[in-house]
Every structure is written in structure tokens, then in C-alpha cells.
Amino acid sequence: MKRRKFVIGAGVSAVAGAASTTIPKPAFSANQRELSMVTSWPKNFPGLGTSASRLGARITKMSGGTLKVNVYPRGSLVKSPDLFSAVADGVADMYHAIEHYWEGNTKALNFFASVPFGLTATEQSAWINFGGGQELWDEIGKVFGVKPFLAGNTGVQMGGWFNKQINTIDDLQGLRIRMPGFGGTVLKRVGAQSITLPSSQIFDAIETGKLDATEWFGPWFDYEFGLHKITKYYYYPGFQEPGTSLSSSINLDVWGSLGRHHREIIETAMAAENDLVLAEFNARNIKALNLMLTNNQVNLRRFPDDVMNAIGNAAGEVVSEAGNSDPMSRKVYRSFLKFRRQSIKWSKISDQAYWNARLLPFSYG
Amino acid sequence: MKRRKFVIGAGVSAVAGAASTTIPKPAFSANQRELSMVTSWPKNFPGLGTSASRLGARITKMSGGTLKVNVYPRGSLVKSPDLFSAVADGVADMYHAIEHYWEGNTKALNFFASVPFGLTATEQSAWINFGGGQELWDEIGKVFGVKPFLAGNTGVQMGGWFNKQINTIDDLQGLRIRMPGFGGTVLKRVGAQSITLPSSQIFDAIETGKLDATEWFGPWFDYEFGLHKITKYYYYPGFQEPGTSLSSSINLDVWGSLGRHHREIIETAMAAENDLVLAEFNARNIKALNLMLTNNQVNLRRFPDDVMNAIGNAAGEVVSEAGNSDPMSRKVYRSFLKFRRQSIKWSKISDQAYWNARLLPFSYG
Description:
Two copies of one chain form a homodimer. Chain A is an alpha/beta fold. In chain A, 44% of the residues lie in helices and 14% in strands.
């Protein structure tokens, strides 16, 4: 089945087991150094696993082979999905994942992934690179023993696939929806039944009527997964994850032990992936959306403003609770909130106003 | 005067003179190779010159000094502003500029910079990296002897500073506005007087009433330039340049002569800058806009839909004429148009719908 290709685990909760103890140690020599990179993705998983592989290959290639990165897909080197601890403890040298997987350490890490009604991909990159975000992230990293980097972004996700229409907030009452993370908590707060389910079981649960709705990613993945074949409505926008960052962190001792040019190579490869992953998601989402609209008559629907407004209030609460859960989270939350507040004024008159104007009925091409 | 810092030339037309003939030849040795990078920017010009310097420094650093890039600001190594020819002819090894400066060679190059009502930064990156754009750009590059790369983006620019209100299309009749490139051609077509003026003369022309309006960049540069002090209205959106790409091209023979890891280093450094330049423009635009709104009570105004619609029709004509001006332009234009048409469907339900929902009056933070 084609959709199997698009089945990934549900983050930390999906796989259990202790870290393997038979890890090959990094090789040191005058001419070559090897780093192990553990990822949250199955081998060659589109957009995510392929980005991890490209990142590893790029670093290896740029260094002329003096810094070789060996990429280990999910479960292959470290059995536990807690790759953060594996890297912090030096069991592996780096990970490629999404920060909200490690929110058990501090909720602050959610802000370096994506939070409901938070920042989009380009805003996230602006905040982290030039708005004080990286400094705060480094501060958290120091506590745990890792050096973190932005390493990609999925862009705005979709609201999800629904078998019933959402016309008022009442339509969410009791709705059985699979939406992991903060998004699920938000929907629960407005009355839905948020159901936790590994991605491998989503398809059957929808088909057998155990689920009314499910979130996944966006047109690219959703189309391959086949969700358009078994649900009625495709809702937007994806308020729950407006631009989810991929991240890659390196054990802090390992980072400190690298030469200046190896550090520069790693840092640059990360920034390049941050650009390219978003570009790939956008290009392939565009293509898949057009295929779905042309070949499958997918019924696109926008969440009504009243519903978005109620969800927005709930999102504000959920994010605020996370942002006030410990001193580090509070610090990050304050920086994030200030940037978001100011950024809204700019997006309103830049991209957003531009896109609104571009939709006017003038003739072009 | 502080604003002097923000004076740059007006592209190809601003400086005359032949390419210098006393160029140091690239050094070849077993351990070190030097490349000359000529840029369109004064030394340390914010966002643009600093990106060129960072790019050069990164390549040098990542290579451990085996590939040293020497950055030459505007006018310092090559006297002619036609850096494209200088690199194509091997007078310099690479340039850092904007493709529309070289539209004299083929109008197709405009599509790799920005065209009125065209693609935004993230759409541009998606088209070029994963939508067939790079292949077409490489095809053009081959004809002239250069290998081109995306190397940054300014994001959506502003519509400009005006001393009179634009409420209907009639208000543009006879308006004396400084807007270079396609934007100026578009405004001329709807009745404005498009005036060509080097950036060093804009300020005085506005103050003495010789100009009614001028385009510049966005809040970051505009605030430093001081345009808010001498004009009445700040109009958005910047239909004329919705996401202007910086680019960096390398002489094709030089590119071919580089080792695999040096090529990988250059390619990765370019992609990293594409992410970072946009992030810096966004972060600094956000900050400057908030300063202007708080301290200077700048009067922000949106072009009315009727005006945007009329300008959109004129933009459609201007871009179509350029896109049909030669066979290569036609090929690029067709690819661009298809991507734009499909991308509009995605932006409408992703970033645009998300940002519209984020503006609802819910409580957040």
C-alpha cells in the first residue's frame, strides 16, 4: 500500500525502549572525524528523512570527508525515541527532529517548533536568527548539554480532514478528532474529543467511523496518504501548526571539540536546509493541491471566523499555560509574544496585504 | 548625514566606465585558490553588502581557507556596473547583485529577481529550487557563461512614500513618482509620470516638491533613509516587488574547475543566505515599522482595491510583454505563470488564510 510510505510514528509516545548500549564511538583521527546523527524519521521519509540525509551528506561533502556524518533513521541506532536525551548524554552526536517532542524537559521547547496561532515559517526564522530566539534556545541547550539549530520548516499545515461540516463551534462538541500536541489540547478545550492514535491506525479509524476527523500535514503528505479518498471535507487554515520548524542539535561537548571550519560547515548546512525544506514543502503542496482539486474534486472548506475566534481564545490559554510553566518557558514566551505582536503589524501590510491584492480579478498572463 | 549610509546606486544606469584591465588573476595552488566576488553594493551596505561579505567569509571559513573569496564592493575592482559581463568574461569570478540589472541580455532575467504581482520570497524559492526555475536559469547561464544561484530575498517591499492620497486611479494621473524598473513602467501605463533619479537625489527632490512620491525598500531602509520625515503617507502593499531575490553567479569555467567539495560549499552557502537575508529583512522591518508607528505616527495607507485592480491589469501587460520578448523569456515566463497560477491556490488556503484568521479579535498573551 502506497500510504505505508507516509506512516510515521507519533513522536515520543510511539516507540518505547531504552537507548542501545552498543553504539559505535565517534572515530577521531587527524584526517577524519565521524558523527552519528539520529533522526525521528524512517529512512528516506519524504521531506523529513530526505532532509536529514541531505544534511548529513552535505556536511560530509563540504568537509571533503574530514567530517563524516552517519545518518541513523528512527529506531536504528537509538531504540528510545527520546533522541534529545540520547544526544545530551552523548549516546549519539546529533539528532534531527522537532523540538516539541522534548517538551517534557521544558515546555519552552514548543516555541522552537510551532504553537497554535503562533509564527509562520519566515517569522520563525526572523525571530530565531535576528530577534533573540537563538540566544534563548542556546541558553536552554546549555542546561541540557546540546547546541540547537533550525533545520527546516514544513510551512503552514492544513486544519485537517473532516467527515462533518464545521459551521459553528457547536459542531466541534464531541467531535472525535485525532490531532496530537497543543492542537488537540485546544480542540478539547472547545469541546472536541481529542483522540490519541499512532499514524498507522488513522486510516482504518476513519474508514470504520471511529474517528470523525484527523489532522495530518498538508496537501503533499495528505494526498500520498490517501485521506482525500475516505473523508468529505478538507479544512483550512491549520491554526495548530502555522509553520513547524525541524531542528537539529549537537552534543555540546562534541560541538566544542570541533574545529572552526567544521562548526561553520554545520551551521551553514542547517541554514540551507531551513530554506530548502520549506521550498520543497511549498512546491510539492502546490502540486498536490492542484492534483486533488483537478482529479479528485476535494471539497475545500475554510473554518468560519466565529469558530477560529473561539479556537483562538482557547489557543491563547493553552499557549499561555505552557509559556508560564517554568522560568525558562516564561522567558521564551515573553520574547515570542513580543515578536508575534510586532510581527502581526508587518505581515498585515506585507505578505498578507500583497496576497489579498493579488487575488483581485485583474488579468495576468 | 545618517541617510547617506542608505544611498545606493540605481543599478546599471548609475555608473559608467569600462571594466578595469588590471584585475589580479585567481591564484591556483595545491592548497589555496582565490576567487574575486564583485558586488553591486557599497561596502557594508546593510542587508545587501553585509550578506555579500558574510557569503564570502563563510565560503572561505568552511573551506578552511582553501577557497578564499575576496569581496569587492561596487566600483572597487570592476568600474562598470555591468558585473554580469565582467563575470561572464572572466574579468571577475563571481558577482553578488540582482538579476534585473542584466535584463539587457534577456528580459527573462527579471523573473529571477521579482516582477510586479509576481511571486513572494518563499514562492520564489519553491519555484526555483523545486519547480523547474533553477534548470531554466542554468540554461540562460550556460548561454552567457555563468552558473547562477539564489542568494537572498528582501521580502515584500512597500508601495512607497506619497505626498498625496491615492483614492482612485485618477489620483495617479500626472503623479511625479520615482519608481525604477517594471514598477515605474506599470505606473506610467496608468497615467503617472515615472521619474528616473539616482537614490542620492531622492531626498532633495521630495523636499523641493519636484517629486510627489518615491518607492524605496521597506520599513528598515526607509526609516534609516528618513523618508518618513518628509512625506505624508506610507502606502502598501509593494505590488512592484513582492519578493526581490538577490543572486550570485560564478563564471562557468571557474565553476567547472572547482573541486566537488568546493562546489558543495558554495551551493550551500548560497542557500543559507537565501534564508538569512529574508530573516534579517523581516526582523528589521518589523522593528523599524513598530518604531515608526510608535514614535513617528507614520500614516500607513493601503492602496484601494480599485487602484490595485487597475495596476494589476497594467502589470499583467508589462510582465507579458517582457515574457514574450524573446524565446528564452517566453520559456521562463510560461514556467513562472504556471507556478504562479497554481501557487495562488495554495497561498490562499495556507499563509494568507492563516494570517487572516490570526487577525481575529481573540485574546492571545
